[in-house]
Design brief:
Number of strands: 13
CATH superfamily of the largest domain: HUPs
CATH class of the largest domain: Alpha Beta
Order of helices and strands: HEHEHEHEHHHHHEHEHHHHHEEHHEEEEE
Shape: globular
Strand order of the largest sheet: 1-6-5-2-3-4
C-alpha cells in the first residue's frame, strides 16, 4: 500500500485533522507513532459509539504504530464537561476501579494487546498536587495553572451554553482540559484521537506539549455515532446504546431497528466496507449484512443464529423461545415502573411515553394505559419489536 493509500485509510470517516500536513510528515518519516486515546471509566460498559475511535486505532496498529490507551481514573472523579449542559454525577473510586477492569476486558476485543500500552492518569496527575512543590518555578503545576486564563477556558462552546442557561460550572470542570492535555505530555503522544465533542480538550494537549518543549501532537476527531433513536449520540444514559456486552440476539435486533438513513453512518464508522458497493444492495439486505458483521465481531459464531431468531420472530410474529427473567418482590406494580426497573426503559417518563404510543405488550397483548398490575403468575413484558423480559414474582 502506498503512503497516499495508507493516509486515505487513516482519514476515512475522520471529521477534522490538525493538521493533515503534519500527519503526512510524521508518516513519511517511517517512525512508528504513539497514538493516544483517553477514556474515563464512568460506566461499566463500552458501546458501539466507543468503537468508532477504537476501530481507527486498530487500523494504526495494523501498520505497526503503538496505541497509548489511558484510563482516566483521576479525571473520571472530576467528570468531563464536553457536550454536557450540566455537571456530571459524582462517581466513587470503587466504581472507577470496577469499571476500569470491565473496560480493559472489552477494549481488547478490538485492540491488539501487543501493540497497546495501558496507563492510568493518576500516575502522573496525582503527584502534581504535592503541596511542597506546587509553586516551584517550572513545576508541572505552575506551567498548567499559571499559563492559562479563565477567559481561555471559558471559550469552549459547552461552557458558553451553560453560562447562558445559568447551569453551574465547577472549578474542577474548568480544569479538566488541562488534565487531559497533560496526559499527552506524560506519554509523549504523536497523535490523539477523540470524538468531535473532544476538540477543545485535544487541542489543549497540543498546546501543552509546546509549553513542555515537546513536538505537538496531531489531533484527529471522528463523528459521534448516533444512537438507535436516530437523534442523540449513542449513550447508555439516553437509553439508545448498543453495548458490546449485549447478548447476540439483542445486539442483532438493535442494529436492525435503526433507520435506513442511519445505517450508512454505521457502515462508514463501524466497518471497512466499500460504501459504493454496499449501496448497490437493497436496504433490507444491507442492514441484515451489517447486523451479521457487527454481531459476529463481538459474539463470534453467534451472528447467524441471531439472524435466524430475528427472522423467525418477525416473519411468524412469534415470541422468542427463551427470555431473560426479572424478579419482582411486590404483589402489585405500575406498568411504567416495571418497565423502568426491569431495564426495558431508561426512565419512568419514557415508560409512560412508550405506553401512550402503543409500544408495550403483556403476553403479546397491547397495553393501552399505565395502570397497576398484579404479579400473580409469570408473564412476558415486551417493548417494541425486540425487547422482552419474563416477569416473575420472587
Amino acid at each position: 500500500m502506498s503512503l497516499k493509500e495508507e493516509i486515505q485509510l487513516f482519514l476515512r470517516g475522520v471529521k477534522e485533522v490538525k493538521t493533515e500536513k503534519e500527519l503526512v510528515q510524521k508518516l513519511s518519516s517511517e517512525k512508528k507513532l504513539r497514538i493516544k486515546l483517553g477514556v474515563d471509566p464512568t460506566s461499566p460498559d463500552l458501546h458501539l459509539g466507543h468503537t468508532v475511535v477504537l476501530n481507527k486505532l486498530r487500523i494504526f496498529q495494523k501498520f505497526g504504530h503503538k496505541v497509548i490507551f489511558i484510563i482516566g481514573d483521576f479525571t473520571a472523579l472530576i467528570g468531563d464537561p464536553s457536550g454536557r449542559n450540566e455537571t456530571r454525577p459524582k462517581i466513587s473510586r470503587e466504581q472507577v476501579e470496577a469499571n476500569t477492569q470491565t473496560y480493559l476486558d472489552q477494549v481488547f476485543k478490538i485492540l491488539d494487546p501487543n501493540l497497546t500500552e495501558v496507563h492510568k492518569n493518576s500516575t502522573w496527575l496525582a503527584p502534581i498536587f504535592d503541596m511542597s512543590k506546587l509553586l516551584d518555578e517550572g513545576s508541572a503545576f505552575s506551567i498548567l495553572f499559571q499559563g492559562y486564563t479563565v477567559q481561555q477556558l471559558l471559550q469552549r462552546e459547552d461552557f458558553n451554553q451553560r453560562l447562558k442557561i445559568g447551569s453551574p460550572i465547577t472549578f474542577l470542570e474548568m480544569m479538566y482540559p488541562l488534565f487531559q492535555g497533560y496526559d499527552s505530555v506524560a506519554v509523549r503522544a504523536d497523535v490523539e484521537l477523540g470524538g468531535t465533542d473532544q476538540l477543545f480538550n485535544l487541542l489543549m494537549g497540543r498546546e501543552l506539549q509546546r509549553n513542555f518543549n515537546q513536538e505537538p501532537q496531531i489531533v484527529m476527531t471522528l463523528p459521534l455515532l448516533i444512537g438507535t433513536d436516530g437523534i442523540k449520540k449513542m449513550s447508555k444514559s439516553y437509553g439508545n446504546a448498543i453495548a458490546l456486552n449485549d447478548p447476540a440476539n439483542e445486539m442483532f435486533g438493535k442494529i436492525m431497528s435503526i433507520s435506513d438513513e442511519l445505517m450508512w453512518q454505521y457502515y462508514e464508522l463501524l466497518t471497512a466496507k466499500d460504501l459504493a458497493e454496499v449501496k448497490k444492495l437493497h436496504p433490507k439486505q444491507a442492514k441484515l449484512n451489517l447486523s451479521v458483521e457487527i454481531t459476529n465481531l463481538y459474539h463470534p459464531g453467534k451472528a447467524e443464529a441471531a439472524r435466524e431468531e430475528f427472522e423467525k420472530l418477525f416473519s411468524n410474529r412469534t415470541l422468542p423461545e427463551s427470555f431473560e427473567e426479572f424478579g419482582v418482590t411486590k404483589s402489585n406494580i405500575l406498568i411504567s415502573h416495571l418497565l423502568f426497573e426491569s431495564g426495558l426503559s431508561p426512565s419512568k417518563k419514557e415508560s409512560k411515553r412508550l405506553i401512550e404510543n402503543g409500544g408495550v405488550r403483556i403476553d403479546n397483548t397491547q397495553v393501552l394505559e399505565d395502570k397497576e398490575i398484579e404479579i400473580a403468575k409469570p408473564f412476558i413484558l415486551q417493548v417494541g419489536k425486540r425487547k422482552f423480559k419474563k416477569i416473575v414474582r420472587v
